[in-house]
Amino acid sequence: MNERIVPEQAAGEPAIRIRGLRKAFGAQHVLQGLDLDVRQGQVTVVIGLSGAGKSVLLKLILGLLRPDAGTIEIDGTDILSLPPRKMRALRRHFGMVFQHGALFDSMSIYENVAFPLREHEKLPEEELARRVFAALADVGLEGHEGKMPSALSGGMRKRASLARALVRNPRFLLYDEPTTGLDPIRTASIDRLIHDTALRHPEISSLVISHDMTATFRIADHVAMLYDGRIVAEGPPDLMLHHEDPLVQQFIRGELSGPIPT
Amino acid sequence: MQPAPPPPAGHPLARPLIQGVERVGRTTRASVEELGRHGRILGLGCGALLHPPVRVRHWFKQMEFVGFQSLSIVMITGVFTGAVFALQSNVAFSMFGAQGLVGSTVGLALSRELGPVLTALMVTGRAGSAMAAEIGTMRVTEQIDALEAMGVEPVGYLVTPRLLASVLMVPALAMVFNLVGILGAWFVGVSVLGISEGPFVARIDWYVDPDDITGGLTKAAAFGLIMAVVGCTRGFYTEGGAEGVGRSTTRAVVDASVAILIADYFLTSAML
Ligand SMILES: Nc1ncnc2c1ncn2[C@@H]1O[C@H](COP(=O)(O)OP(=O)(O)OP(=O)(O)O)[C@@H](O)[C@H]1O
Ligand SMILES: [Mg+2]
Question: Using one digit for the tens of pLDDT, what is the confidence trace for A103-145?
Fold first, then answer.
């Protein structure tokens, strides 16, 4: 799309550093020793099969689930040893776009986007409105602020959720399939938004979950593939495109024959 | 030929015993876990009152929902309970010509028992179920995760206003129930059964103490707490999509109703 301001090697210490992460639900081992770095100023995209544990990974990073083993460090702080109050304070630096939006269905779109501002920043009402409308404009939802979430299409809900995640300019952005279910034009504009947000704010670290290969290679500084509970391959997008691992090749090209059972 | 299945472990006669013990163990563990969940919601819900933010707007919204919106159902139940109680006690008292006691009997029964208990059961069906359904839906659609993700403590946000509203509004509604119940009894007693009005009213005043009323309202507050804790806990720990929300809602109403009736016995015997 255009040049990266932070080249792969020059990027600083990882903002999020994950080592040996394991998580099982009963007998189902979802993550089995996952290592991943999310570098500051970069957009890291995690790709992987449906059910691979990508959403679980995001919930572990936010502390919504507890891992069975492993460490997660955010800016060098081990979050698993943080007391709940500290963890809650840390989460205020995160914006999360849930896979299915997770909008509050008792509130209008405006109130949904205003919610994190009302909770954490004491703003005069005009300033609040200005920020909310700016966030809604970013995602192309002007004019829909009065609607309830149930009156929106799936794609619109997703964009409202994106506006809610962005409105406080958080330092960490976690996107769970931000463009799944959107039309190609919207997809491109959300990709541009993710990319531009990262470009404009070098202090932001973004972690995007995606199935969408076009989008992935459009926005990523770093791509990691999650398979069988681990990151099996990672690197800058152009390297990943020509990665020798047949798993990566099969996934990127969406082929039916290969090491991934279909 | 098929190979014979391996014989199950243990002496054949001991097997049902082992299974029985296992079942008791599992049930005990599950009940202890359930109790822990309710305790956690109650503790965090009350604890949130001590920390900012104080969400007065949410309190009022819940009070409106639990209280004002239950008013009509409580009034209808109250009038007919008082009326039918007057009919029934009239049958009993007219056997020995003590119809003048109908009013005071209804007054005592309402303020001490029927008002608090029936109000709590009606409000549980209306508001307790809604608490489980709303919070349960928020759980399964990840809205509670979204609250957490934004650094908002979900129990303080969702549960505390409902606890507070229930503890305040169930007694208020029970008071309304008492009043309209007496009116129902008065109408039936005086207009339908022809009991003279003077003694009907005077005896109520005579027999019903302020203590009967405050005792009844204290119980109502406790029932409100039970309803809200059970409804919110069921909602908060909902699993399994829309079906799970349905299950939580039903269990909330059943559990809260049973718990209210059991608590009624113990509170009453403690107050006597
Ligand atoms: N709370 C939970 N309880 C039990 N199992 C769970 C839970 N959350 C996730 N799982 C299981 O973990 C696995 C990974 O789920 P996850 O939602 O992370 O997949 P995903 O990679 O995000 O898939 P998709 O691309 O389809 O969203 C799934 O098999 C799922 O059934
Ligand atoms: Mg997912």
Answer: 999 999 999 999 999 999 888 999 999 999 999 998 888 899 9
Pairing of strands A205-210, A222-227: unpaired
CB B223 within 8 A of CB B116: yes
List the single residue in B134, B137, B153 with the smallest CB-CB distance to A88. B153
Asked whether B124 and B256 are in contact (CB, 8 A), the reply is yes
Q: Which two tokens stand for residue B64?
A: 């409106």
Please state, in angstroms and as integers, the Cα–Cα distance from residue A257 to each residue in A51, A252, A261, following that order: 19, 13, 8
> Strand, helix or coil at B111?
helix
Work out whether strand A172-176 and strand A205-210 pair parallel, antiparallel, or are unpaired.
Answer: parallel
Q: Do β-strands A69-74 and A14-25 pair in parallel, antiparallel, or remain unpaired?
A: antiparallel
Best residue among A56, A179, A212 to mutate for probing ligand 1's pocket (most ligand atoms within 8 Å of CB) is A56
- B35 is a domain residue: no
Chain B residues whose CB is inside 8 A of the A118 CB are none
- Helix, strand, or coil here: B106? helix
Contacting residues of A for B151, CB less than 8 Å apart: 88-92, 119-120
Task: Look at chain B and report how many structural domains it folds into.
Answer: 1
What ipTM does this complex have? 0.87
Q: Which residue is it, tokens 């896979």?
A: A99
What tens digit of pLDDT does each residue of B3-28 get? 655 555 667 778 888 888 889 988 88
By Cβ distance, the residue of A59, A88, A104 closest to B151 is A88
- To the nearest whole Å, the CA of A25 is away from the closest chain B CA by 14
The answer to whether residue B259 sits within a structural domain is yes
Q: Which segments within chain B are labelled E, that is strand?
A: none
**B45 assigned to some structural domain:** no
Which of A22, A25, A58, A66 should be mutated for ligand 1, with most atoms under 8 A from CB? A25
Q: Domain limits at B211?
A: 55-271
- Look at residue A97 and give its three-state secondary structure: strand
The boundaries of every CATH 3.40.50.300 domain in chain A are: 14-93+174-189+204-262
**Domain membership flag for residue B105:** yes
Task: Give how far A187 is from chain B: nearest CA, Å.
Answer: 23
Local confidence band at B53 (pLDDT 50, 70, 90 cut-offs): confident
What CATH homologous superfamily does A14-93+174-189+204-262 map to? P-loop containing nucleotide triphosphate hydrolases (3.40.50.300)
